[in-house]
């Protein structure tokens, strides 16, 4: 099959939602939903009353009898909860999750992909983080039940994922090795998921989606192409100017005077080596301009991935008021991001949009009481008694150190889970009137966002982004 020229980035938590993915897909490009914390997003949409009835509509088409009803019974609040009432929490991911959490993950991913694809023939993908291992298998299965076309994964080395897709497509159980801090290399821990548990032999075998690995180097791409558990169908090559998590610089970490990681010649991807692999690749990171698209095609790329430009368009999940503020900052030249080497509990550099009233401000970050009540970025570790534990460098410091964590690892860590949920209007209420603050991420291209704004307007559509890129590019 021919691949799309433009891939819409699978950004943040609920930013690349089904509406955005659907809009891009209908334009003939690859729309992508974000699978990050999708179970939490789904549960909170239901608790907010499911405005428009979209989640319930998707569950009406869910193919496994009884599961959708149990999820609705547990989370749906007719008319929506009061703003002063906190969202009910679902269980945190673990190596052996309870059936209720597994069902929530499966149905959430099914619903998001189903709504993006329903009634139209365009392509839809889902983006997952390799670091969020404990949610991966139920998420993939749910997305495949909805006939997802592509799976995109970065923030790690996703060698096992192609084989997982093969096994799910055959209706067979899959196993994913889980990284456990402190465990001997010979001691393996695995998350197992069996599709037959849910549908038995009555469940139709889903198609095998294309798998695109998100990488920053040809070395990693070569490893994935040769040593993955199944077929890798292509690569998205993200540079350090892309939003969200970035690959760390190669070699010893050095920081600028402002505290950002220094990237050098070793971090520039070797496109000749990518071309030699014979697989399609897309370039990402400030490529949302016609001349950059033309350049990518000349260099042998199949196209580009575009994140930031889509993240702040009308169809994205970011709260409209936040989008308007960011667009105005771009128009006046005040939009900037900071590549924070400490913010993410994963240890990867993370781009934080500098915006007043958000966790990007040092005083607001310092004033926030530390909570870890979502837990999707927790690391699994081996306790002295041989059992497994879970800790997050952004959780309360005493909790982290009590679990064997190092105090220095907590400094500067931000709760991405809660901050990103607030960015899309699903933030938690604390103490009745206190609410979690938003945390926004974007690529360096945020400074050029105003190019999509027409005079007198403070918003733009996904269609305007696609039209701008495809109808103004120079001949390749």
How would you characterize this protein structure?
With 476 residues, this protein is an alpha/beta fold. The chain has a domain at 6-318 and 456-471: TIM Barrel, CATH 3.20.20. Helices cover 32% and strands 14% of the residues. It has 17 helices and 17 strands. An eight-stranded parallel beta sheet has the order 1-11-10-9-8-4-3-2. Strands 6-14-15 form a three-stranded mixed beta sheet, with no helix packed on it. Strands 5-7 form a two-stranded antiparallel sheet. The mean pLDDT is 94.
State the main characteristics:
alpha/beta; TIM Barrel; 8-stranded parallel beta sheet; 3-stranded mixed beta sheet
Main sheet?
8 strands, parallel
Radius of gyration: 21 Å
Could you give the order of strands across the largest sheet? 1-11-10-9-8-4-3-2
Shape: globular
Provide a concise account of the structure shown.
By secondary structure, the chain is of the alpha/beta class.
Secondary structure layout plus pairing:
Layout: E1 6-8, H1 18-26, E2 31-34, H2 38-47, H3 54-60, H4 67-75, H5 99-117, E3 124-129, H6 136-145, E4 150-154, H7 161-169, E5 174-177, E6 180-181, E7 190-193, H8 196-199, E8 210-215, H9 218-227, E9 234-238, H10 271-277, E10 281-284, H11 290-298, E11 303-306, H12 308-311, H13 320-332, E12 337-340, E13 350-353, H14 362-367, E14 379-382, E15 388-391, H15 397-402, H16 416-423, E16 429-430, E17 434-435, H17 462-471
Parallel strand pairs: 1-11, 2-3, 3-4, 4-8, 6-14, 8-9, 9-10, 10-11
Antiparallel strand pairs: 5-7, 12-13, 14-15, 16-17
Helix pairs in contact: 1-5, 2-5, 3-5, 4-5, 5-6, 6-7, 9-10
